[in-house]
Structure formats: structure tokens, C-alpha cells
Amino acid sequence: MVARGGRGLVPLLAFLGVMAYSLSMAVVTPALPQIQDGLDTTPAGAAWALTAMTLSAAVATPVVGRLGDLYGPRRVLLAVLAIATAGMVVAALAANVAAMLAGRALAGIGGGVFPLAYTIIRDVIPPARTASAVGLMSSMLGLGGAVSWCLAGPIIDLLGWRWLLWVPVLGLVPGIALAWWIVPRSAPREAARVDWWGAALFAAWLVAALTALTEGMDWGWTSPGVLGLLVLSAVTAAAWLRVEGRVAEPLVDLKVMRTRGVWTANAASLLSGYALMAGGLLFPLLVQLPEGTGYGFGGTATQAALLQLPASIGMTAAGMTAGLLDRRIGSRTVLLGGAVMTGLGYAFVAFQHAAMWQLYVGGLARGIGLGFAYAAVANLVVAAVPQSETGVATGINTLIRTVGASLGTQVSAVVIVVVPGEGGYTTGFAVSAAVMAAVLPLALLAPRRRRSPGGDVLVLDEAPRAGRTALSP
Q1: Which residues does the UniProt record annotate as the domain Major facilitator superfamily (MFS) profile (predicted)?
Q2: Using CA atoms, how far apart are residues 135 and 118, in angstroms rounded to an integer?
Q3: Own/partner pairs for 329-332, CB < 8 Å, 24+ apart?
């Protein structure tokens, strides 16, 4: 039963929650120069306003997903939204960098809305409509980025950068009230336990790895700090794997992660995350390079943001339609088509980037392709796991996408430094096209579908485990 509200409002709340979180994640990116000046810090200090939230979200997402699986998504969602709102308020009021980072780290816990939203959708939406809802959910990432870039300029110019940080709060506060009102209550699993040792070790190796990845350019890839973090990550990861293989109720069921529908989707998520953020770095930098370079456009930050807008809208629209395509051709084929479109978009701008219209064409193809790919991998994961594992499985998938995004930013930055001049951008676009080409075999390895005599769509995968339904969304 839906608590004091209509069942149809539940997915709407999930969409709004994910949208508000996506906006809070992206909203500081266009304001980093103003944050640097306002808090009297360095460029690296301002960049940590984004990094702190990314690291926190990476750790929190699968942990929150697991808590939602164990104790029900409603109570966990309420806690997550409250913590994220408090974090955004602290960040908006921050008088120094330390307070800003603390607030952003708290806000990062809001990353748990993704797996919780997938769990809620799977619980309350009929199977025939689940794929459409999951696709729409995945599209919120692109929409959040688009909205943040559209709002950033006017708000910063007219009101100041702090007001930009208040915008997500306007979505999160009503979200708490709506969650209390309409999200259905669910009984916790009997004798449910949280694998806190596994969670601690998971956080340790992940934070060490992502910090090394984030700071590699500034510290140097062979610096003692980066190498030490990588060693720490490897040691704690080995300990985490040992713990997860021994406990009765692990944070992450490694057997589920080895399911063909899951590992192929996770690998595709890693590569798709790379493709998203590689373009997020390369396109704006190319637009803002001086015309005197012979290949730059001398554009403003606003022009760079407008270039991202069609791609974000295309990504949102593709995510909304991916669910309909899933019912007709399956998520496997949707992923294949998305990878092809994204790869072609990057390949086009690798060879043709002398005019702005060419960047718009390539960027739009990239956005639409990634919208299909993101929705497809989420649907593959949801279809492949037992309902009791939906939260943690989709949380891990979201985490892996974040790791891929970090790789896309760092590798592309290295490429344009190592390869001088225009060749750096050509190489960066070509590498992104090659990365999406690597998604093609993963899509072909993903489970096929067939129709039962009654018309239901079945996933051909490993034999169903106890508690798992063979019906795909």
C-alpha cells in the first residue's frame, strides 16, 4: 500500500529526488571560479568542492542501496534526503573551504537516491512499465547537468554564487515532505544485518583509489602520495574481497556481481561514464581556446555551456524513450545502438571540428547515444538481479559509472597535455570513440530475450536463483 497517497505519485517523487541530487552535484561546476574567489582558496581547493561530493557519493551509493534492500527504501530515503539537504545548507553558508567541503561531503550521501529510486520503482510499478521508468530515471543525470548550466549564469551574475547552492535545497525540502507522505512502507527483512566491516573496507579502498585518480595530475602519477594511495587501495580491496567472500550477508554479493547481465552492464557503465566526462572536458576547452591557436573558437563560458545544452536535452529525451524501445527490441539492442551513436559522434568531431555546427552535431549524437546507453545498463542490472538485491546492484552500477567519469576527465586531461596543439583534441575525441567501440562486444554478451507463449519477455541468463524472477522489466 502507498502511504496516504496515490501509487502514481511514487515514481514522480523518485524522479524529482534524483533530479534534485543531480542538480546539487553539477551546480558547483560552473561556479568554481567564483567559489575560489569567495572563499579565498586555490583552484585545487575550489575543485575539491566537487571532488568531496563525488567521493562521498561513490562510497554512500552502494551502502545506502544495501540499507534500502534490508530496511525498506522509505525510511532510508527520508534519512538520505535529510542529510543531503543539511549538507547543501552547510555548503551554501560556508565561510571557509573546510566548511564547504564538509557540507559537500554530507550532500554526497544523497547519491543514495539513485539505488533507492530504482528499488521504489521496481516495488510499485507494474513490470510492463518498469523499463520506461528506469530509462526516465537514468535521463535525470543529463537533465540535472543541463539545468545547472542554464541557471548558473543568471544566478551568479544577479545574486551571487551562494544562491546557486540554494537551488537544490528548493527541490530537496519538498522531496522530504513528499517521501513522508507517499512512499510506501515496507517491512525490514527478518534478521537483517549490515556488513559494517565490509562497508568500512569498501570505503577505504574506494576513497584511496579515487583520490589518487583525482590528484594524479597535480601530484604527479609517480609521486609518493599517489603511489601510496594506490598501494593502500590495493591492500584494503584485497581485505574487502576476503571479508565479502566469508560473511553470511555481505555488503555486495559477489556472486550476483558475476551474473552475466550484471558484469556486462557494469563494464559498459564504466566505459559510458568515461565517454560522458571526456566530452564534458574536451568540448568546453576547445570552444574557449583563443582563435589565435588556429583551432580554438575564442568562446565564452556561456557559449561553452550552450554547446552542452543540446547534448543534455538529447540525453534526457533518449532516456525517456529507451524504456519503450526496451519492450520492443530489448535493452541489449538499445545499448548496442547507444554505443554506436556515441562512438560515431566522437569519431565525427575527431575529424571535423573546424566549425561550431560540427561540435553541435557531434555533441548531440554523443548525448543521445549516452542517454540510450545509460538507460540500457540500468535496465540490464534491474532485470538480472533478485528484487532483494536491486538497491545494492544499482548502487554498484552507479558507482562504477562515477569511476568511469573520473577516468574520462583525467585521461582526457593527460592526452591534451601530452599531445600538443590540435592533435591533443583530435586524439582525445578518437580515444573516446574507441572506448565506446569497446562497449559493442559487451552489448553482444549481454543476455538475450525471448517471449514466452503468454507474451511475457524473459531474459536468457544463468539459471534463476532463489528469489529471482525471470521476468525482465
Answers
A1: 10-450
A2: 10
A3: 330/448, 330/449, 330/457, 331/131, 331/375, 331/376, 331/377, 331/379, 331/380, 331/383, 331/446, 331/472, 332/376, 332/380, 332/443, 332/444, 332/446, 332/447, 332/448, 332/449
The vertex-218 CA angle with 21 and 63, nearest 5°, equals 35
Q: What per-residue confidence (pLDDT) applies to 141? A: 63
Helices (H) and strands (E) in the chain, counts: 18, 2
- Do 318 and 342 touch, CB atoms closer than 8 A? no
Cα distance between residue 267 and residue 396, in whole Å: 11
For 460, what's the count of Cα atoms within 13 Å in the CB-facing half-sphere? 11
Q: How far is Cα 429 from Cα 427, in angstroms, rounded to an integer?
A: 5
Res 350 pLDDT > 80: yes
Q: Which residue has the cell 576476503?
A: 242
Q: Is 95 exposed, middle or buried (0-12, 13-18, 19+ CB in 10 A)?
A: exposed
In angstroms, the CA 430 to CA 49 distance is 30
Per-position DSSP letters for 248-265, written without gaps between them: SS-SS-HHHHTSHHHHHH
Rounded-to-integer distance, Cα 398 and Cα 410, Å: 19
What is the C-alpha separation between 250 and 193, in angstroms, rounded? Answer: 9
Instruction: Report the C-alpha gap between 66 and 195 in whole angstroms.
Output: 9
Confidence of residue 461 (pLDDT cuts 50, 70, 90): very low
Query: How many beta carbons lie within 10 A of that of residue 119, not counting itself?
Result: 29
Within 8 A by CB and 6+ apart from 112, the residues are 60, 61, 63, 64, 65, 67, 68, 76, 77, 80, 395
State pTM to two decimals: 0.77
8 Å CB contact between 323 and 132: yes
How many whole angstroms separate alpha carbon 25 and alpha carbon 22? Answer: 5
The Cα 145–Cα 3 span in angstroms is 32
Task: Please write the tens of the pLDDT for every residue from 65-94.
Answer: 888 877 888 888 889 889 999 999 999 999
Closest residue by Cα to residue 22 from 405, 448, 442, 441: 405
For residue 464, the model assigns a pLDDT of 38
Q: Are 397 and 61 in contact (CB under 8 A)?
A: no
